[in-house]
Amino acid sequence: MAGFVIVVDMQHDFVMASGALPVPDAEAIVAPMAEWLAALDPAETAGVLMTFDTHVASIYDGSAEAAQFPIHCERGTEGWETVLDPGVIDPAIPVYALEKGVFDMWEEPGLRIRPLAGGAEVDRDHFFERLAASGVTMVTVVGVAADYCVRWAADGLIARGFAVELPAALTRGIAQGIEAVAGDLRAKGAVALV
Fold first, then answer.
1. pTM for the structure as a whole
2. What's the CATH number for 3-193?
3. Residue among 6, 7, 3 at smallest CA distance from 43
4. What residue spans define the domains of the chain?
5. How far is Cα 132 from Cα 138, in angstroms, rounded to an integer?
6. 102-142 pLDDT, tens per residue?
C-alpha cells in the first residue's frame, strides 16, 4: 500500500544560516533529504506535499507569532523559497504545495492544496479525506522545526487516523529534537521514529 510524504517548511529562512530564523543544524539535512526524495518509489508513494510558512509583513506584525519570532518567510522573498528542488522527485509522484500562515497546518480554515504540475486546487481537509479513502494509512513527515510545525503536522495526521513515520535524520528542531517530539506523540497514536 502506498504511503504519503509531507515535507515541512524547508524554506531558506528556516534552513540556511543566513535566513531570518534558522533552525540549528538544518542545513545538514538538505542534501540527505534531496537524495531521499529522489529515491522515492512511485509504486510506494501516493504523493509529496511541501508546506510553506507564508507571511505578509503588514499582517504578521499584529500576530501572536510576532511576539515570539521576527518576521520570516515573507511571500515573494528569497526567505520564503524552498531550498529543495521538487524536480528531483520522480515525475510519476504527484507533488503538492500548501501555504500556511501559522505553525499548525491544520489550524487555519479554508486552506487549499495545489498541485505543482498545475491543475485544480483542493480544500486541505477534503484532500486528506480523499487520501485516507484511497487506502493511504501511513504518512512520513520530514523537515523543520521538529518542536513546532513538524509536531503539529504529525499531531493533526494522528487525529485524522493516519499512522506517522518521523525519520530522525531528515528533521531538526529548535529547543527539542524529533526524538522528544515522537515520545510525546506516541500517546496519541501510531508514531514510528526511524
1. 0.94
2. 3.40.50.850
3. 3
4. 3-193
5. 9
6. 889 999 999 999 999 999 999 999 999 999 999 999 999 99
